[in-house]
Amino acid sequence: MGLSTTLNATPREERGKNSARRLRASGKLPAIFYGRADKTEALTLDYAEFKTAYLQEEGAHSLFTLAIEGRPPQMVLLKASQVDPLSRRLTHLDFQKIDPAKPITVKVPLTLVGKALGVEKGGQLQQGEREIRVQGLPDQIPSSIEADVASLALGQTMHLSQVKLPVGLTLAKGVDLPVAVVAVPKGLKAEVEEAAKTAAAAPVAAAPAKKEEKKKDDKKK
């Protein structure tokens, strides 16, 4: 589950750009925690620890257990993050406290599994969406969701609505975007089109032969 990762944090008194710059220079990461009644609190996290927890094998995660020094751990949602446009390093985080008894909407990494039929025939599997937006209780949100593409043939596409979700989850409202497609390489395109034409013409070519057989049967009668 996404909540299995615990982040350690300490309260901080100083705020402002200069304070945040000093924290980042020392390997720390400034953050804001939104609790209940719109109260906010400034926190400090270890940059390396957060990066390891955030970027796991499946991709970016947004649900965590936040352990603020001196307090019981609590469930939180990463609402926003800021990144330096040049270094691409995280510079600031926003956490929101969540109620474990109420459904939430989050993005979960999407992983394609299985070898598509079309790939075995020379096609190229391409992934569209790498995250899937779902709704469910916090303890039902997985660290990633798998989409089985084994049945995809050449030229076929799988959409969000075709992804089998874990029990308790539903797709958040939105456009039914493609998550995977077996693209047909240029070299195979002409071959596939020719095969399709041949298959479409086959029943038409067989029809006259059946008529001739019927005439022979009528003569025998």
Model description:
It is a single chain. This protein is an alpha+beta fold and 221 residues long. The protein folds into two domains: 2-98, Ribosomal Protein L25, Chain P (Beta Barrel); 105-184, Ribosomal protein L25, C-terminal domain (RNA Polymerase Alpha Subunit, Chain A, domain 2). The chain has helices at residues 17-25, 47-54, 117-120, 186-220, and strands spanning 6-11, 28-34, 40-46, 55-56, 59-60, 63-68, 74-83, 90-97, 104-113, 124-127, 131-136, 145-148, 157-159, 170-171, 178-183. A six-stranded mixed beta barrel has the order 1-3-2-8-7-6. It is elongated. The relative contact order is 0.13. The model has no long low-confidence stretch (mean pLDDT 84).
Summarize the SSE layout with pairings.
Elements: E1 6-11, H1 17-25, E2 28-34, E3 40-46, H2 47-54, E4 55-56, E5 59-60, E6 63-68, E7 74-83, E8 90-97, E9 104-113, H3 117-120, E10 124-127, E11 131-136, E12 145-148, E13 157-159, E14 170-171, E15 178-183, H4 186-220
Parallel strand pairs: 1-6, 2-8, 9-12
Antiparallel strand pairs: 1-3, 2-3, 4-5, 6-7, 7-8, 9-11, 10-15, 11-14, 13-15
